Amino acid sequence: MANTNNSNLFASKIGAILAAAGSAVGLGNVWRFPTETGANGGAAFILIYVLFMLLLGVPIMVTEFTIGRHAQSDVTESFYKMSGGKKGWRLMGLFPVVSGILVLSYYAVVAGWTLYYVVEALGNGFAGKEAIDYANDFAAFSSDSVQPVMWTAIIIAMTCCIVALGVQKGIERGAKIMMPMLFVFILVLVGCSLSLPNADKGLTFLLKPDFSKVTSSVCLNAMGQAFFSLSVGIGCLCTYACYFRKDVDLMKDGLSVASIDTLVALLSGFIIFPAVYSIQGLSPDAGPSLVFITLPNVFQQVFGSMPVLAYIFSLVFYLLLVMAALTSSISMLEMSAAYFLKKFKLSRPVSAVIVSAICLVLGTFCSLSFGAWKDVTVFGMGFFDLFDFLVAKFLMPIGGTIMCVFLGWVVDEKVLKAEMTNNGTIKSPLYPAFRFIIRYFAPVCIMLIFANELGLFKWLTE
Ligand code: PHE
User: Are 19 and 10 in contact (CB under 8 A)?
Assistant: First the structure.
């Protein structure tokens, strides 16, 4: 993916922002954010999440941008080059490979559920059901051993074709139209959801922090969600940044992408939770199935008297969501496929197919962990939860810390300053704060969160 040719650069500054936003905005916002918010008690979790987004997520994103644009190479070479030729830094290249495979394996399961919902919407399968039917139907579907695996396979195959044919740019161009459309749909749905009975209870859950619900794991969960949502810490954005033009303001871009991403996540919360409280028998901590139960219900309740609108709305919404998932899944497959392509001198299609095959096997494990393999656990978690834990709560924070330490301590400060100020042509008022964060705050904060998770501070509260 190294960039040697000017024609590869994003033609406009907005192109660069939108491509990174395409990777960032996806199921992480519409599916994972409400799941985590529900499981971690609501408003207090959101506060901590937004704080981590600003203080850790954005700085690590800018760190990845800086490394990628300066080195103009893939992750392995970027770290090697910028460390002044120290071979050990080449190991950083393992992060995108391992994380790309792990994350795509379980992400494709949820993207597969979304695709199944497109087909359901197409066949008008949501019409005329009681609220609780959606919960029962989803439970039956997701625990099946064949159907969800098949939809996972279709998503992986679609992602593979796009990466193998090298047509990401085309997809990303399409995403430029579809992402704003998704945004408009989300806004309309927020309005719809807020009009449901008992919506105010959902608003209280989202806006009124109840710190008694904050457990010791909330910090790790909020940090994991911030990193996952921004796609940071595993080198994904380094690769994008090597296509950035020299006049892109990296800090401004990082802040813009994070703002779009956080806004989409928060708005998704405003769709889901008012609906949760208006459905009898559903609780906010229902887990990964939450979105798939509440959304069809919102469509039917709000547009129930206008079945055509309910039909069109649910179909277009799930289609847009699949698109958003694909722009993210492409970036995941590309991360690992690019490595195989270079390392073993394979062709693009062959390396994409090999990685996809591995993801399909692992994805099957993840899908089965909702049904037939529910009782198969590793460290107390099923495969789906284990992969999610490994990526969001382990690899991303560790990778992010190493990147911060690398840029803050190993790379010459002149390089950092030159990239942040575009060789002195722009002002970068946040530079001192940014440098402080990557040198001290981020590494220390992430390590403290890990230490807390390992129970090292228990004696303080005893
Ligand atoms: N950020 C993406 C989302 O919110 C997920 C993602 C994770 C994409 C890691 C690339 C790498 O859906």
Answer: yes
Residue 296, classed as helix, strand or coil, is: helix
| pTM higher than the cut 0.90 | yes
CA of 221 to the centre of ligand 1 (A): 16
Residue nearest atom 6 of ligand 1, based on CA coordinates: 231
Q: How far apart are CA 8 and CA 243, in angstroms?
A: 6
Task: Give residue 355's Cα distance to chain centre.
Answer: 20
* pLDDT tens digits along 209-226: 988 878 778 999 999 999
Side-chain-facing half-sphere of 396: CA atoms under 13 Å: 29
CA of 9 to the centre of ligand 1 (A): 22
Q: Which of 81, 70, 92 is nearest to 414 (CA)?
A: 70
Q: Which of 29, 32, 49, 107 to mutate to test the pocket of ligand 1 (most atoms within 8 A of CB)?
A: 107
Q: pLDDT tier at 3 (50, 70, 90 boundaries)?
A: very low
The encoded tokens of residue 243 equal 């296509």
Can you tell me whether residue 190 is helix, strand or coil? helix
The whole-angstrom separation of Cα 144 and Cα 429 is 54
pLDDT in tens, 52-84: 999 999 999 999 999 999 998 889 899 999 999
CA of 399 to the centre of ligand 1 (A): 15
